[in-house]
Write a structure and sequence with these properties.
The protein is an alpha+beta fold. It has two domains: 1-34, no CATH class; 39-116, Hect, E3 ligase catalytic fold (2-Layer Sandwich). 38% of the residues lie in helices and 11% in strands. It has helices at residues 2-16, 26-34, 41-47, 96-108, and strands spanning 67-71, 80-82, 87-91. A three-stranded mixed beta sheet has the order 1-3-2, with no helix packed on it. A hairpin with a 4-residue loop joins β2 (80-82) and β3 (87-91). The longest helix has 15 residues, at 2-16. It is elongated and about 60 Å long.
C-alpha cells in the first residue's frame, strides 16, 4: 500500500504542491480539488442537465458558464447536452410546445450515452 500512496502523493504534489498547501485546512483543500457537496437544490436543478459534475465548483454554481447553441438538426431530434462542456445543442423548434415536449423528453431520458 505504501507504494501506491507514494505514487499518488508524488503526482498530487506535482500538480498541487508547494508551501501554499500549509495554508489550507483539509476540508478547504478538498473543496478546492474536488468541489463542494453542500448543495442548493434549486440552483442545482437549473444547471445539472448540462453539467457532468456531481460537485459544486469552488466558486459556486454561478461560476458555471452554460451555453445553449442552435443547431440545424430537424425538429424531430431532441436537444443534446454535452455535459463535459456545459453545452446544450438545441434544434430550432417551430413552437414553444414542441420545445417543451422535446426538452422534457430529453431530461427524462437521462441514462447512458447515445447519439440522438
Amino acid at each position: 500500500m505504501c507504494e501506491q500512496y507514494s505514487a499518488f502523493s508524488s503526482g498530487f504534489l506535482k500538480v498541487c504542491g508547494g508551501e501554499i498547501l500549509s495554508l489550507f485546512q483539509p476540508s478547504e483543500l478538498m473543496a478546492m480539488v474536488v468541489g463542494n457537496s453542500n448543495y442548493n437544490w434549486e440552483e442545482m436543478e437549473k444547471v445539472m442537465f448540462l453539467t457532468g459534475s456531481d460537485r459544486i465548483p469552488i466558486h459556486g454554481m454561478e461560476s458555471l458558464q452554460i451555453v445553449i447553441q442552435s443547431t440545424t438538426a430537424e425538429e424531430h431530434y431532441l436537444p443534446v447536452a454535452h455535459t463535459c462542456y456545459n453545452l446544450l445543442d438545441m434544434p430550432r423548434y417551430q413552437t414553444k410546445e414542441i420545445l417543451r415536449r422535446r426538452l422534457t423528453q430529453a431530461v427524462e431520458q437521462y441514462e447512458g450515452f447515445s447519439l440522438v
